[in-house]
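Shipment paperwork, digital attachment
Item: protein structure file
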Amino acid sequence: MQKKTLLIILLGIALALLVSSCSQPADVPEEQPADPTQPPVEIAPTATFEPTAEPTSTQKPTKEPPKTGPLATAAALSAQTTLVPSTPIGGFDASDLADDDYVGIVKQAWYIIESNYVRDNFNGVDWDAIYDEYVVLAEDVTSSEELWDLLTELIRELDDDHSRFVPPGNMESEFGVGGNDGEAQPWIGLVVWPGPSKEDEYFYAWDVCEYGAAADAGIVRGDVILAVDGEKLVPGEDGFTSEDVRAVVFGNGGDTVTLTVQSGPDEEPRDLTLKLGGGGGCMDWVYEVVSEDPYIGYIRIPDFDGDSADNIRAAIENFEADQPLDGLILDVRHNPGGNSDDAAGIFADGVVGTTGPLREDKQRTSYRIRGVDWSDTTPLVVLTDGSSHSAADYFPAALKELERATIIGTNSAGNTEGIISFGLADGTLMRLAVMTLALNDGTILEGIGVTPDIEVPLGMWGLRQQPYDIQLQTAIDFLTGQ
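Attachment content:
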């Protein structure tokens, strides 16, 4: 691809992005507990479920499906990216490089990493030896495609899930621009739960939109999805994959997708063929009184974008119209992030830790929450899971560090590194982790997440418990003293 064309693509991406989110840096971990095992239910041949009316979508897509699991990880990372154009980096002047100077571009990429990567030990890699090896390899490169493959391998030497090379063909998917002519992608109106963690054993229906093929077929929250188009959903070493998520939610390229679903321990699996289309009435902000005596409120926080702090304040004001709360549950499960500082400031005040590079030659910035504008004594619980990303890592981390809340659920995503995109001389991009969060005692949450005070795995049927799922019920019991 010619340099001029690539630069035009980058200009469009830069205008689309404008600059990042996530008040603080973010990255991706893997949740802890147990090694994954195959779901214990064997899928016996069953008759295909034929609903009385064929499941159909709404007339037109009304809402993009929320990102979840591995897709949420990608979305959170994309949202917090600053674009840095091709400039002299670390004493290396790339201004005269041609887009076919393959050796020079490899040297430029190496210097960018050497000068800016979040850790100056490069995760144990001998970065000087990497330079010698890859400059020699670059001398044999004869095309842009070969160069891009080599740059991909260069960054993989860091063994960092977030740092990566972005070839021109991946620009649209990486930054969420272009594609699909602005129309919402057809889907089944279902939010699923596989978090990016090793503990995930089951593939859940997390939320079912009010309108869409999933609701029409009778799928409900807590159903376990055992297979898609006849292929069993079995977690690998690192849990389920983004491909698993996409296959369930968006299908495998056809107009329909067939899911094998089990709705309870005493129910037989059944096959549901769903027509892809639109979805609406998906679960968003939720406010609810979950106990009258003591008086306990519940707020589901789906993201930390825009007016999230104002929404929380409005919910509390509504709860306390007649009497003060005796306790409050804040649910940030499946929250992809945003900016949680103002929301945390409703409840707490103090220094949480520092943010910045983990390099001897770089300074770090104090990370302080400034509040309180509601209450600093009313008991709080924060619910977390493996899809609590970025700002939804920072929020429970801050309230736990400041001894303001009890954390219940499973480890948050540990998505605490900040990412910057650096432009290379040929117009391509390299995305690099440059900063991360450390708590006051030096604990790094990257790759680990916030560990709950009370760990509550969902188990196979934890979402189907009534009236509340097992994690939420545990929070209610904790605040009511049961």
